[in-house]
Amino acid sequence: MRVRHPLIRLAPLFRASRGLLLIGVVGLVAGTALMIAGPWIVAQAIDVDLAQGDRPGLVRKALLYLVLLSAQIAVTYGSRITLEIAAQKAMLQLKEELFDHLVEHDLALHDRHPSGKLITRVQGDTEALRILFVEVILSAPADLLLFLGMFTVMWFTAPEVAWLTFSVIPPYIVLFAIFRKVAPPRFLAVRKVKAQLTGFLTEHLRAMPTLQAFDREAWANERSEELNETVFRAEAISHLHPVWYFNTVVLIRALGIVLLLWVGAGLVAAGSITVGVLVMGLGYLRQMFNPLFRLSHQLASLERARAAAIRIAELLDTPRTIADPEQPEAWPGLVDAVRLEQVGFHYTEGTPVLTDLSLAIPAGSHVGIVGATGAGKSTVLNLLLRFRDPTAGKVTVDGVDLRDIALADLRSRTGLVLQDVHLFAGTVRENLGGGDDAVIAAALATVGVEMPLDHVLLDGAANLSRGERQLLTFARALVRDPELLVLDEATSAVDPRTEARVQAALEKLQEGRTTVTVAHRLATVRGCDRIYVLGRGGIVEQGTHGQLLAAGGLYAALHELQHGEVAA
Amino acid sequence: MTRRALLWRWLRVTWAGSGLELGLICLLSLVNAGLVVAFPWLWQYVVDNVRGADTGGPSLRELAAWMAGVGVAQFLLYNVLQGTRSIMNAKIQWRARTRVFEHLSRLDAAFYRRWRAGDLVTRLSDDGGEKISWFLCSGIFRTLEAVLVVMACLIAMASLDPVLTLWVILPLPILTVLQAAAQGALGRRYAAVQRSISGINDELEATFSGIRIVQAAGLAEAARARFVRQAGRQRDAEVRTSVVQQGVHIMYGYGWQMAVVALLLAGGLHVMEGRITLGQFVAFEGFVMVLVWPMFDVGMFLSKYKQTFVALTRLQELMDEPPIARASAGVPPADGRVAASGVGVDAEDGALLLDDVALEAAPGELVALVGEVGAGKSILMQVLAGARPPTRGSVAIGGTADVDLDRAARRAAVAHVPQDPVLLSATVRENILLGREVSDDDLSEALEVSRLAQDLPVLPDRLETVVGARGVTLSGGQQQRVALARALVGRPRVLLLDDATAALDADTEAAFWQRFDRTLGSVAAVVVTHRIATIQRADRVLVLEGGRVVQAGHHAELEAQDGPYRAIYGRYCAAEAAAV
Prior knowledge:
Structural class of chain B: alpha/beta
CATH topology of the domain at 337-423 and 465-567 in chain A: Rossmann fold
Largest sheet of chain B: 6 strands, mixed
Largest interface: A-B, 137 and 139 residues
Number of strands of chain A: 12
Number of helices of chain B: 21
Number of strands of chain B: 10
Strand order of the largest sheet of chain B: 6-7-8-3-9-10
Strand content of chain B: 5-15%
Helix content of chain B: 55-70%
CATH class of the largest domain in chain B: Alpha Beta
Mean pLDDT of chain B: 83
Radius of gyration of chain B: 36 Å
Helix content of chain A: 55-70%
Largest sheet of chain A: 6 strands, mixed
Oligomer: heterodimer
CATH architecture of the domain at 337-423 and 465-567 in chain A: 3-Layer(aba) Sandwich
Number of domains of chain B: 2
CATH superfamily of the largest domain in chain B: P-loop containing nucleotide triphosphate hydrolases
Radius of gyration of chain A: 35 Å
CATH topology of the largest domain in chain B: Rossmann fold
Structural class of chain A: alpha/beta
Mean pLDDT of chain A: 83
Strand order of the largest sheet of chain A: 6-9-10-3-11-12
Strand content of chain A: 5-15%
């Protein structure tokens, strides 16, 4: 199946601003029409006014030229701004679409693409597209008209030389075809080798103290010299392509002019055309090349935009794997238990993270999950809240598979608190998910934070203390009144007074709620009704804090180790 | 440094050795100006010829041949001129980058602690890229070309009709003035766009990196609202910028035609009065078009001026950092005895990192450093390695104080394996050798002792396996073994291991020490370690607390004493028990 061109795929974006687009393109075309009139006026002035010595006539022609020029400038300027507004509008819509797509998309996609890459999609690639639309695609009708219009005028005034103005086109088409074929791979080569250079610099500047310790600066410098020379060669070659293209266009134009003057002069001498027409032809030949010159430096951005369009289309077409079921079942209400039933999970085939993990979280209980780094704690968390689907087995709530519950339903019944607070620049209200002010205020009161809802947080909530930030994340979970609450290492070390405040809030948060605490610090799970110890892809121990200590296994060993840390 | 001095310095740096290109560019620019003007100049004869106005001028056929000749000559010449400029643009980047990199390679570890690598990379690749190269070559020499073309054009025009010349060029400088005015406004508006872009980027970063919370806490709506608001702001800023930018474009695209109006009026009258021929009138129109592009080039030059100086200043900032003193003609260390006495180190903010530390390891001895995180173990290792000069006290290798040692010989004698080894995206072999030439025996010994040899069979291309970003990801233990092999292959006399064996399992580490004793028995070793076996093996254990040595002695002695050592040791034991 032939895939649709990515640009066509993105065309519907312009539907909303098609009025503006039409005005803009028509305006550009009108401006071009006026441009065609210029050389014609000069021709008339030469043939009529100068020939007859008609001074008032000459002044009238000059004024007409001035008026048309002013009109042309005004119309073209207005149209360009109109097109810019239309393109910006379309790109804003595209950005919103991308944002919506990404913000609802699987964790898997986010894990695969670091946020920096996604930002480039949303910001950089849309910018490349905008440039393409404004500077190339939307200008094309006017550029085409410039060609055709000038040809038409010539055809009607002097068919004998009209064909001359067109004779330059076939060599030009060949030229452009060659340029289009040979230049882009060179541009790509430059981008590649520059990426290599950036990689080299990042790595070697980071490693510089090490290299110095081994007295290897000279070696690093040699490699820098080599790589920079490679960049130089690639760049020099890629720069030369627009140069020969540009100059060949100039040459074709110059030879066209020579041909026109030579043949035209013969025709003038023979009396079949006037001098004015010859001069007009000269004027047209020079102007109709302007769009072709532009192409010499636009080709690179054209290629970039094409690549950007493909990447954006790919991203938008990436289906969600964590999606709503076709016939969702209602959230059953969590009266029995949340269960992981023979759950297996792997990120890449062959390297399992979890194998045959089964555990139960009875309704209303507080369960702790601990284990060494890499034991799969975060994976269990992601499975419980359906950020990931298990590769084997299932996760159920009162017997209902999580995959059969509508995501919105699931999310509204569950809550998550992470150690990494993730508070955003914005008001407290926004950070707590908006909604009913009374609910938000109540949640704040419950965790013991006094703060106006309109209080504005700075980026990363830098204007709050660490304790306050934690309390706000509790309030954020509380606002949704979740039935299942998952805490991931929710508290971090703070001073003892704040610790007490945080602890009190945490207890209030957990009150009457089924709670799962995923923790590295064992102190966090000490009070849990049941603690599962993860290891080797499954549960290796379970029990209460006391039972596990008494058993003298992995938990006891970890406890010994951490207890020491705390004491120190 | 004044702007002029800065510009001169970088022009000298980047153009040194390219005198030929410089001369070629200047010469061709001059010839080019003549050719550019010659083309319209010839038109007058064509027009006058067909009007029968000429008296013995060249024939039409000759004129056509001349024009074609000028066209082809200009094609050839301008390809070379523009090509040379392009190549020089690229060469300037090459020279600027290698020059700055070379300087960076001579800056000490303290510099690398102060600067983020990302910032350095941006300065080298961005500021040392097109931002300066365009201006230092194309910018300057396109302006030269423009000035020459304008001059040639003015001379040609004035020789035909000085008064008409004045009329016609009158509107053109207005372009340059408007351009300069627009640039100021454009700069401010562009800065506003940049600000809104970085605002959005922060917003997106916060949203995407916290995607789980955004989804779990139902924050998507709020995040979307903020994004839309900010993106709208960016759009407004961009539209405001384009209002000015398009104005500039239009000015250059069409503004010059004002000169055509002036020509039509004044030139037409001059033709009627018989002061110029119709052919000269047509040539004048040609000259007007020739004059447009130079105005654009000058405007471009003026607009890039500021940006270039910002970039040059950012590069110069790096060049102004004082390098490590050149290797003095010092003495090489006599043996591997490493000694620190009275060593104190203050942090950049004045905090005390090390205080009055004394340490000595004779050839063949093993000294272990233990202590809490932040006790100063790694700092002390850096001081011993020579990567951080002590604020007080001194370090001596082989009985010679640091300042009197030959730098290269000191570096060869002392090998430091830091906590987090730095690997390059290169083969395992390159990562070990770092370009050093060593015998096969030395290499295989280093592989054996470091225990890296046991990893090789599982690596796809053994020693030639490419690791890092574009290759195989090594485990933490494998990375440490590569770093160990890297240190050992130079046959050091002093080995400093900063927790460098932490990711090795206990058996591997035991095997490492066995081999080490057998083949490198005369090496003085100082190690930071949590391993009980290593601590027990050490000739001396130093306990650091708050930057001071609070206890020192053999493990057995320390265990018998009442001090912090007991608690620390107990914890290490517990940790090992838990890991099993």
